[in-house]
Design goal:
Elements (H helix, E strand, L loop, with lengths): L17 H5 L4 H5 L3 E3 L2 E6 L4 E4 L14
Antiparallel strand pairs: 1-2, 2-3
Length: about 70
Amino acid sequence: VARGQVAGCAESLLDCKPYFKRHLVCQTHAILPVVVLDGVEMRFCQQCAKFERLTAFDSGNRQVGLL
């Protein structure tokens, strides 16, 4: 059964949308404001399509701050 990249996530990726399968993240963890990966607070960036450190985000945005 295909699973997301968040340790302990029991949500299967088999029935989810292609976007989530492609990036190995379940919809639940993709929209959470904080996910802890290897002891680091992170959030899924919709622009980068990967988990980034929480400090890289501006406020509650779903994408990292642009330089």
